[in-house]
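Figure-free illustration: sequence to structure, shown twice.
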Amino acid sequence: MRVMARLGVDVKERLFGRTALYFAAITDKNTIIMLLISARVSVDVKTENTGCTPLYIAALRGHEAIVKIMIKARASLTETEQNELTPEAIARMKRYHAIASLLEGGGS
């Protein structure tokens, strides 16, 4: 993160309404997620156009490790996107049963 700061990279900046945390969640980049969380970015920041959180995106894509990291970072399990779906609801719709169970039990 220090290297990024020295280069003038703002990890909270948005590109097309999405943050670095969003892009790390959608591409399943565990290490980047952990670095961003350690830099204290908001884990519940929503996309500007659809209102998706990084946890929602990880659940949508079936990225179980990212979901676990986000739960441990205390991401909201109840935030909804524009269609009022929670991360658990989208995981169930996509038949990612293990992820849905994690979200239902709050990570336990």
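We now fold a second protein in the same way, so the two outputs can be compared directly.
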Amino acid sequence: MAQGPDEVVRSQIAQTRTDIGDTLDAIQTRLSPSRVMSDVRESVVDATMGRAGMPAALLIMAASGAACWLLWRAWAGRVKPDLAP
């Protein structure tokens, strides 16, 4: 049975909503504080281990952790938790 124009549009809207939901989930996962901290920690350790040693790496990680937390709090305060249609 062929779909009418309304059903086709509704189906496309539903698919777009699903796609947007998947994209938002991926963004949320990628920007989660634990993921950001892990990425920052890994980058800092890789960049500093040969040069400044462990104490400098730990100091940089602590500072970047505080910055990430502040950015996350600022971002989280602006995002509406209910994205459902």
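Summary for the second example: DSSP finds three helices and no strands in the chain.
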